[in-house]
Structure formats: structure tokens, C-alpha cells
Amino acid sequence: DAGVIQSPRHEVTEMGQEVTLRCKPISGHNSLFWYRQTMMRGLELLIYFNNNVPIDDSGMPEDRFSAKMPNASFSTLKIQPSEPRDSAVYFCASRMQTRSEQFFGPGTRLTVL
Amino acid sequence: AQSVTQPDIHITVSEGASLELRCNYSYGATPYLFWYVQSPGQGLQLLLKYFSGDTLVQGIKGFEAEFKRSQSSFNLRKPSVHWSDAAEYFCAVAPNRDDKIIFGKGTRLHILP
User: Fold this and answer.
1) What letter would DSSP give residue A25?
2) CA distance linking residue A21 with residue A77, whole number of Å
3) What are A60-89's pLDDT values in tens digits?
4) E-state strands within B28-86
5) Which has the closest alpha carbon to A74: A36, A111, A110, A105?
6) Are A100 and B42 an interchain contact pair (Cβ–Cβ within 8 Å)?
7) How far is CA B113 from CA B41, B76, B89, in A?
8) A77, A92, A113, B101: which sits with the fewest CB atoms below 10 Å from its CB?
9) B44 — contact with chain A (CB < 8 Å)?
10) CB-CB: which of A48, A99, A104 is closest to B44?
């Protein structure tokens, strides 16, 4: 079975540009999580969805960040406008309803110049 | 609030030596506990988890962890490390199966040849 799929794997953009990160969870999983990882702050939960509904977005740093999950097989994390301090690795993870563990994607390394 | 403490930021051991990575959590009841491993440039992979039953949990790659309620600890062990075990290890906690997971700051493991 395919794991969590994220695209792109690497993104380099200039300050002020819009960035869209994409995630396809594992089929049959009903929870989806977006994380950000930096050296300074470690792994931070940004937002998570259950059955396509946002449950907790308290980790979203600013209004510049938004996330959507239009269906069970796709989610996006958008940053508009992007800033250099947004440079990080962004992970998506998914979870099956009957299980506690999350499965992580390979991440998207974002660099904002 | 729940929290997870990994007191060692870096650990260095020789190949073939035994390993113990420490993890302490702060939570009133018995939570769900996890250990994840992250190799360079990769996402997080689940090593093992605990939520009830036998307090000694076996995981993948020859790892095990022991839950000690009296010490609020969930330390990860391996009897003999291999060079391929060099990675970052994250301890994590969730209050229940359906809640979000709180990750520790991680311990980076270095292996000496």
C-alpha cells in the first residue's frame, strides 16, 4: 500500500509568493495532521482534521496560513504571503479511526528566500 | 497540560553497545505512548506504542520500551545498536486514542564505528 504522499518534496520561493503544499493520506484513514519541523522549535502540530473537518487549528501560526481538506483523499496547506521565517520541513500524517498511531509522509522542505 | 521530556539532546554510543533513550511524560492518567524514529531527510516512522497491558513493549528494528507508571517514564532500549540506527528519536504522548499526539524535542543518536 502507498504511504502518505506529499508534494512537492522541495519548494524554493521568494518572500511574498504564495505556497501550496499538498498531501494525500493513506486510503481509509480518516484523520489528517499537518506539522512543521524546524531546528529551533522542533515538531509543531499546525492543524488536524477528522473526517475532513478541522478539529484543532490552534497551532496555525498566523492568518497567512490556511489549510483545507475538500475530500478524504486530499489536503492542502497554503501560505500567503510567504516569509523567510516560514522556511521549514512540513509533514503531513494520517491516522485510521480505530487506531492511535499516525503515519507520516516524507515531508516538503520549504525554503523562502 | 500534557508534556513530554526527552532530557538528552544528543547521545553517542559505539556500534554493538546497548542503548537507552530516556522519556518522561506529564499526564494524570495512563496515556498512549509512542516512540518514532526519523532518519535524515525522512519522515517519522513508528517504532512502537503502548496504551495498556504488558509494560514491556516490543517494536520494530529490535527496539523495546518499558512503561513505568511510578516514574512517568517510557524509556527506549536496544541491546546492541547498529550504524544504521543513527537517527533522531522522538517520544510522544496522547491522552487517548482519538486525540492529537504531543511530541518531545527528540534525541539525536550518533553511532561510533
Assistant:
1) P
2) 5
3) 988 999 999 999 999 999 999 999 999 999
4) 32-38, 44-50, 56-58, 64-68, 73-78
5) A105
6) no
7) 22, 21, 20
8) A113
9) yes
10) A104
Taking only the tens place, the pLDDT of each residue in B6-48 is: 999 999 999 999 999 999 998 767 789 999 999 988 999 999 9
Contact criterion met (CB < 8 Å) for B94 and A100: yes
Q: How far is CA B105 from CA A33, A108, B72, in A?
A: 18, 20, 17
φ, ψ for residue A57 (rounded to 5)?
-115, 20
Is A33 in Cβ contact with B43 (below 8 Å)? no
pLDDT given for residue A97 in this prediction: 84
Judged by a CB distance cut-off of 8 A, whether residue B90 touches chain A is yes
Q: Do B43 and A107 touch (CB under 8 A)?
A: yes
